[in-house]
Write a structure and sequence with these properties.
Undecaprenyl pyrophosphate synthetase; 15% strand; globular; binds farnesyl diphosphate
């Protein structure tokens, strides 16, 4: 199937896809390579998946690149992942900008080295008016940390308890203004949320594949989109066919 045929074969495309890019370490180990080469291969793959998302007409892509828990990894790996972020900005930013990609960051920037922080802020500023694909990079991100930050700022802003609702909380999250993910993909077969978008993913569809992230190519992405295409999203309501009869309501 050609890329155009693939797209027309789908009845719905998720507006926002989020990815837990897992399995870099095992990919490297299975080849007798150091873990960092797995992360480097994962970064190469990310370039291809960004382009594939643009081709498939996905508007938002969120990637889990470094969690608040990843600080607990060996220093060499932590520094290696920081270096990857720096390299991606140094080497890919202009091309991403030309392709109409808007870069956003979710998480905390304050623990990063000032030079890296500045590069991230520059990338966000440079690309802020692009609208082909919004790429949200979750770096030093944790879902619980995000909610704690939101609660602190809600209290600092003196919001009255009775004024707090879903919309208010969402507007204080790092993802303010970004629609909730429709589809969350996790590679390498692990069946865990791992503190990723725990508020925003309340009604996301999940797709888990045993494929390690560096091997998750465009065809694999298409399989995930095909799976999503077959899902009926009910958001806790009844399906259309159930509404026709007198079925008991259930959590959906
Ligand atoms: C999880 O695999 C992956 C990560 C913690 C890092 C993901 C980072 C990249 C793919 C590089 C792109 C990064 C940026 C900043 C653009 P793992 O190491 O836990 O794999 P394992 O479970 O097999 O050990």
């Amino acid at each position: 199937m050609s890329p155009a045929e693939k797209i027309t074969a789908l009845t719905k495309i998720p507006n926002h896809v989020a990815v837990i890019m897992d399995g870099n370490g095992r990919w490297a180990k299975s080849r007798g390579l150091p873990r960092m080469l797995g992360h480097r291969a994962g970064t190469e793959n990310l370039r291809k998946i960004i382009r594939a998302c643009v081709e498939f007409g996905i508007h938002y892509l969120t990637i889990y690149a470094f969690s608040t828990e990843n600080w607990g990894r060996p220093t060499e790996e932590v520094q290696g992942l920081m270096l990857i972020l720096e390299d991606v900005i140094d080497k890919e930013l202009n091309e991403l900008h030309e392709e109409g990609v808007q870069l956003r960051h979710i998480g905390r920037l304050e623990n990063l080295k000032p030079a890296l922080r500045e590069k991230v802020l520059h990338a966000i500023e440079l690309t802020r008016n692009n609208n082909r694909l919004v790429l949200c990079v979750a770096f030093n991100y944790g879902g619980r940390d995000e909610i704690v930050c939101a609660i602190r700022r809600i209290i600092e802003d003196g919001i009255r308890p009775e004024a707090i609702n879903d919309e208010v909380v969402a507007s204080y999250l790092f993802t303010a203004g970004v629609p909730d993910p429709d589809l969350i993909i996790r590679t390498s077969g692990e069946m865990r949320v791992s503190n990723f978008l725990i508020w925003q993913g309340a009604y996301s569809e999940w797709y888990v594949t045993p494929t390690y992230w560096p091997d998750f190519d465009k065809d694999e992405l298409f399989k995930a989109l095909q799976s999503y295409d077959q899902r009926e999203r009910r958001f806790g309501r009844l399906s259309t066919s159930d509404c026709a009869g007198d079925a008991e309501p259930h959590a959906g």
